[in-house]
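step: validate -> pass
step: tokenize input -> pass
step: predict -> running
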Amino acid sequence: MKAYNTNGLIHYKFNILEPFHEIRHFVTGRTGGFSNGPYHSLNLGFGTDDDPEIVLKNRKALSGSLGIPLDWFVFPRQTHSANVAVVDYTHLGTGAYMRGDAIASTDALITNCKNICIVVQVADCVPILLLDTGNSVIATVHAGWRGTLQNILSLTIEKMVVAFNTKPHDIVAAIGPSIGPCCYEVGEELRKIFVESNSKNSKYFINFNKHFRFDLWAANKNQLVQSGVKESNIELAEICTKCNNDKFFSSRAGNGNTGRFIAGIMLQ
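step: predict -> pass
step: emit ->
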């Protein structure tokens, strides 16, 4: 990933996606906004205790920095579900100005329409951007442990195949900043849930100080590969949000009280 600074607002781009001029994409940092306290400074999430007017001011600042009208953004109302929505022009601006009209109970978005910027919000969970280079289809996915357990990334690719005839080997995928295996300590109960779901999941848990460290990055990369995405077509940011909470919001670093950064992608 590379960092870009536009008038003090920092966002990041994936090396693997930059050559594709038919898209715009970004991952925001937490620098360049107007929020204070635990939300300092570019908090883009309405689902926090931050002042909604300040959040909207931050979103407008991001829109201006990227040169993408806020009316073109589409936000899901994320609930750690495995629900995937196909987006079209009727969704333009959904969730952009208020939380209440975001696409309900959805954690992944897909579109083949130009000038629709689909995004997900995160603060330790894994944001994933997908580009079907054969059919000009894009997707964005929010995968915490619940979404990962429910195979939301695989389900998103399945829906791309059904709705748009995507060939998985044509997909380029970027796994963004999230809590890393260096910091994601979990208990035996969570490990047991994953292993009971699939015994092969045990490889994502590393024994540590009578607990475990969970590798969300590897688990989601494996879903991509198992879905038919070429390993050479996958970029893993390998940036831990907790270790880098000066640059990205982290729920664990903030003891559950923090802002949200977003990952977005748009066909142009």
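step: describe -> Residues 52-66 form the longest helix (15 residues).
step: cleanup -> pass
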